[in-house]
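task queued by scheduler; priority normal; single chain, no ligands, no partner chains; default sampling; output format set to structure tokens
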Amino acid sequence: MDVYGLLGNPVGHSLSPPMHEAAYDELGLEARYVTFEPEREEIDDAIRGADALGIAGLNVTIPFKQDALEIVAPEDLATRIGAVNTIDFSGSGPPTGYNTDAVGALRAFRDHDVEIDGARAVVVGAGGAGRAVAFGLADAGATVAIANRTEPKAHDLADEVPRATGHRLADIEQLVAGADVLVNATSVGMEEDATPVPADALHGDLAVLDAVYRPLETRLLRDAADAGATTVDGAWMLLYQGVEAFEIWTDRDAPVDAMNEALRSRL
């Protein structure tokens, strides 16, 4: 039996176990997905121990994504993003680290027939999710405007991302007016009915992805739908980062419908 799992602290809230278990059941795989909750100072031992014990693959979440980067052999995208959220132990050398958050966002847009190549994208937030989304969009051919409450952080990220510019959050209305794609990569809308983008800035030519998935329908997405925009809730990004990890580990097409059903049944 293959064993996969999640490294994080805490991990009790994670939706990854039911999503991956549903994939194993759908395909008849002898596999299980379990959670591990080491202390911060134990992360090196945890990853090396998983390798020694024959664990097939790990997802990595807060607060270990940056720590994992220093322990595994990261792929180029993970190195540029500065974080690892998926580890594959199948090779003969050191475990390989990936960041599937970027691909998760791109596949979420693709699922909604949104073309990224040549698009003008706005990313709100320059933290971990913002970094992943900005690199993913740029690699797929978009120009990226990064807006952040702390403006210097937006400029620092824009200096790393191809065809990107940094902006203050106060410029968001002007940026969105000329955009094709908008991503909220902050936690705004998770704890309260708030949005980082004024409703009157949204328009019908936009595709809007909110990385927040609790609640599924954020104020930003409600406002975007009212404006006639294409809306993509955060569960799609969560789903597809998990789908990408599954396909890296198993070299098989993931049963997306089964994983999506398991995920949404718990939201």
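post-processing summary
- Residues 66 and 87 are 13 Å apart (CA to CA).
- The mean pLDDT is 97.
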